[in-house]
Amino acid sequence: MPQSLSAMFIHVVFSTHQRKDIFQNPELRQRVHRYLGGITRNLDSPLYAVGGTTDHVHALIRLGKTVPIATLVKEIKRNSTLWIREQDEFNATGFSWQAGYGAFSVSESNVPAVSDYIARQEEHHRKWTFQDEFILLLKKHNIAFDEKHLW
Question: What is the pTM for the complete model shown?
Answer without folding.
Answer: 0.92
